[in-house]
Amino acid sequence: MPEPLPPWPSTAPSCGRVRLRSVCESDAGMAMALAEDPYVSATGTLPHRADRDEARAWVKRQQHRHSEGRGFSFTIEDVGARVPVGHCGLWLSHLADGYASAGYAIAPAFRRNGFAAEALTALTGFAWSLAGLNRIDLFIEPWNAGSIRTAERSGYIRSGFRSGYQLAGGGQRDMLVFSAARSGGP
C-alpha cells in the first residue's frame, strides 16, 4: 500500500488565466476532445477517439488518483470562460525519494494560447508546497517542440535523456528529461 499523499489543496492552484481544479464528471467532453489527438492516447490511459463511456471511465480513474496514492490529477480550466481546456498531473510515486514527475495536455481547440505553460507553472508552484519534494521531472519526446517550449517557459531545464522510457499507455519511447528543482534544494 502506498504512503498516503499530502492533502488535496484547499485553494486551487492557479496562474494567469488558468486554475487547476479537481476532475469532475462534466469533464468527459474535454476528455473526448483530448482523445482526438493520437499522441495523448499513446502516452496516457485515455483511449484514442474515446467515446462518451470511455471518456467517463477515464474521468473516474483521474478522480481516484489521489486516493490511490498516485498523485494529483487536475483539470485545467480557463478561468475567464469557465471551461476545461486540458488536463495535468503531478505523479508522486517517488515522493519518499524527493522527486516527482508531471505531465500536461491541452485539448486541440485550445492549443497555442499559453494555457500549457500557465498550467505547468501553477502545478509546479503547488508542488513546492509539498514537504520533501525537491525535483520535478518532465519526459518529452525530442520532436515535441511545443512541449519543450512550454517546459522552458515554466522554468524547467533540460537535464538528460531517457532511452526506452515506459509510457503509461504502453510501449516505450526515447525522451528528453526536463527538470525543475526547489530553490535551495538539491
List keywords for this structure.
186 residues; alpha+beta; Aminopeptidase; 8-stranded mixed beta sheet; 26% helix; globular
Descriptive account of the structure:
The chain has 186 residues and is an alpha+beta fold. The protein has a single domain (14-181), classed as 3-Layer(aba) Sandwich (Aminopeptidase), CATH 3.40.630.30. It has helices at residues 28-34, 38-43, 52-64, 115-127, 145-153, and strands spanning 14-15, 18-22, 71-78, 83-91, 99-106, 135-140, 157-166, 172-181. Strands 1-2-3-4-5-6-8-7 form an 8-stranded mixed beta sheet, with helices on both faces.
Shape: globular
Q: Kindly state the mean pLDDT as a whole number?
A: 93
CATH architecture: 3-Layer(aba) Sandwich
CATH topology, anyone?
Aminopeptidase
The number of distinct helices, counting runs of at least 4 residues, comes to: 5
CATH superfamily: Gcn5-related N-acetyltransferase (GNAT)
Number of domains: 1
Beta-strand percentage? 25-35%
CATH class: Alpha Beta
N-to-C span: 28 Å
Secondary-structure class: alpha+beta
Oligomer: single chain
- Biggest sheet record: 8 strands, mixed
Task: Please state the CA-atom Rg, rounded to the nearest Å.
Answer: 15 Å
